Amino acid sequence: MPAPLDALMQRALDLAALAKPIASPNPSVGCVLLSSEGAVIGEGHTQAAGSDHAEISAMKDARARGHTLSGATAVVTLEPCAHHGRTGPCADALIRAGVKRVVAALEDPFPAVAGAGFARLRNAGVEVQVGLLAEPAREMNLGFFSRIQRGRPWVRVKIAASLDGRTALDNGISQWITSPEAREDGQRFRAQACAILTGSGTVQADDPRLDVRLAGAARQPLRVVLDSELTLRPDARIVAPPGRLRVYTASDERAKIDALAEAGVEIVPLPGPDGRVDLPATLQHLARSGTGDLHVEAGPTLAGALVAHGLADEFLVYLAPKLLGRGRDMLQWGPLETLAQGVSLRLLDTRPVGPDLRILARVEGHDRF
């Protein structure tokens, strides 16, 4: 007996999740192909940028299993593309293969697609159904939708703190407040991001690498440092491979710029009216260059500035079961005059990770765009 369509779309979403660490800057898409009798004959998901999209991957899988695609149904989490980018249009490939029905969760918001894929399929006589499990499909690619529709990335701020809200001792010591299990869990969130952002203060204090150190990691997100005065040293660990490094600055000191450029750092001057890096302009620039999911690991000043500018969308907080007393806060912003000025969050998930507690919370209303 054929599986119900919602179960097949859920399988496509599970496949899309496998693409999260490799697909950027493309959306993470999954596809399940069914024979005319309703049996699953092929599966696939988006590959690395410039390689196969989900539909092509699924068709290759079906053919490798010895199946014909004539009369098949494609269950896919996003509209098949209709334009020539690094690869050809998936809508055309489905038509050529003889697929007769496409069940898609969502229309692609990218202007070069935006319904054109569905129109091309329908014009070729392919039956198209849209809207099945649309919300979880949108959630899967919230960063992609944010980049296209808001012109800025979806910003997740990661914080590791004690139960009394300290991210470091008064003397600056912060390694390690949370457990190895929490740090490894945080690596998985890094791996799914398009870019990882920090500030110059964190670089000076901790000399982090900000790379993905999971076994078998296929892609390193872009590393980004906000450094208004260009204090970054060419021998800092974040400058070294793997991965690329981009620095946004308000400085025009030629000697510093040249030294970092010589070390392979991309320098982007974006001074704001206050003489510091312009935060909104930085996010817009990141979006234009392909960043949809932005993972922030920064100190309380930068994290607080993102909140104050209304640019933080989500918080990933690891709380260790310990008390540290006076020390560095999670965020520095305010002070507020009334409780009503506070930022309301919606809890998405709470779970233990090793001895610590992981909280994922979203700023109310930020996902409605």
Q: Would you kindly provide a written description of the structure presented here, covering whatever features stand out?
A:
The chain has 369 residues and is α/β, with parallel strands linked by helices. The chain is built from eleven helices and 16 strands. The protein has helices spanning 5-19, 54-64, 90-97, 116-123, 134-140, 142-149, 180-192, 200-206, 254-262, 279-288, 300-308, and strands at residues 30-34, 40-45, 73-76, 101-104, 127-130, 154-162, 166-169, 195-199, 222-226, 245-249, 266-269, 293-296, 314-320, 327-329, 345-353, 356-363. The strands form three sheets. It has a nine-stranded mixed β-sheet. A five-stranded mixed β-sheet has the order 2-1-3-4-5. Helix 3 runs parallel beside helix 4 (116-123). The relative contact order is 0.12. The mean pLDDT is 95.
Produce the secondary structure layout.
Layout: H1 5-19, E1 30-34, E2 40-45, H2 54-64, E3 73-76, H3 90-97, E4 101-104, H4 116-123, E5 127-130, H5 134-140, H6 142-149, E6 154-162, E7 166-169, H7 180-192, E8 195-199, H8 200-206, E9 222-226, E10 245-249, H9 254-262, E11 266-269, H10 279-288, E12 293-296, H11 300-308, E13 314-320, E14 327-329, E15 345-353, E16 356-363
Parallel strand pairs: 3-4, 4-5, 6-12, 6-13, 8-9, 8-12, 9-10, 10-11
Antiparallel strand pairs: 1-2, 1-3, 7-14, 13-16, 15-16
